[in-house]
TrEMBL record:
Similarity comment text for this entry: Belongs to the binding-protein-dependent transport system permease family.
Ranges for domain ABC transmembrane type-1: 92-308
Gene3D superfamilies, per database record: MetI-like
Protein name per the record: Protein lplB
Major subcellular site: membrane
Protein source organism: Ktedonospora formicarum
Pfam families reported for this sequence: BPD_transp_1
Amino acid sequence: MNTKTLVASRMPTIRLAGRIRLLLRRMWRYRIVYLMLLPGLLYFAIFRYGPLYEAQIAFKDFQPLLGVEGSPWIGFQNFATFFKSYYFSQLIVNTLIISVAKLIFGIPPAIILALALSEVRYFPKLARIAQTMSYLPHFLSWIVIFGILLGLLSPSTGLINSAISNAGKEPVGFLTDPNWFRIIVVSSDIWKETGWGAILYLAALLAVDPTQHEAAAIDGASRIQRILYISLPNIKDVIVLVTLLRLGSILDAGFTQIFALYSLPVYSVGDIIDTWVYRTGILNAQFSLATSVGLFKGLIGLCLIFTANRIAKRFAGTGLY
C-alpha cells in the first residue's frame, strides 16, 4: 500500500480526531458556561433519561420478585389490553376535552393580562399590586385551591349555594355534578395560572421598542390600534412558542388538580389518563400496564411536538428548533 492510499484510508479518523480536539478546546474555552449547565444536565440525565431504562416493563409481565430483567417478555400485550379496555375511549376523550379547553381558554386571558399590565407600567404602584395579586394563586397548592372551592361551592355551606338557596332555588353540587365538573376544572386552572402564564408575554412586551408606540401615537393611532398592530405582532413568536410547549403536553390534563377535585360521581367526565394510571399502577399494583399507558402518552406528546413545530414553522415562521 503506497503512502497516498494509506493517508486516504486514515483521513476519516484524522478528521474525527481533529473535530474532537476542536470540541474539547471550545469546551475548555467556555468551561464556566458548561459548569453552569452541569446541574441541569445531571438532573435530566438522572431523573428523566435514567428511568427510561425501567420503561421496558411496559413490554413485560413485571413481577417485583423477579425484577426488571427477570420478568417474562410479553411484547405489546399491555398496550393491547389498554386499547381494548372499556376505559380507553373515555380516558382519551376526558383528557383531550380538559386539556384542549385549558389551552383554548387559558392562553387568551394570560395575553390580555400581560397587555393590561404593560399599559399600566406608567403607574408602577398599581402595576406591582396587580402583578402580585395575579401571580399569587400560582403558588397555592391544589389542596388549598380545593379548600377555597369547597368554601364557595359546597352544597350545604358554600357561599354561592347559600346565595342560590336564598333565591329560592335548589343548591347545585358543582364538584359532584358531571355537567359542572369540567367547567370548574378549567375555570379554576385559568384563575390559578393566568398570572404566572402572563410573565413571558409581559417580558416580551417590555422588550418592544417604545419608539414604535410613540411614532404610532403621533400618527394618530389609538391605544387599541397600537395594541393590535404593534404589541401583538411583536409577541407573536412567544405566543407560538408557548402554544407549542402546551401542545406537547396535551395529554397531561393536570393530575394533581383532577386528583384533588374529582370523586366517584364525576369519574365519567373527570377521569383522565394520569388518574387511571395512578389507580392501576399504584393502588392495583399493575405496574406493567400503567407503564405502557404512560409510555403511550409520552410518545403521543413527542409526535405532537414535532407536528406542531412543523406547522408553526410553515405558517408562523418560527418554532422550537
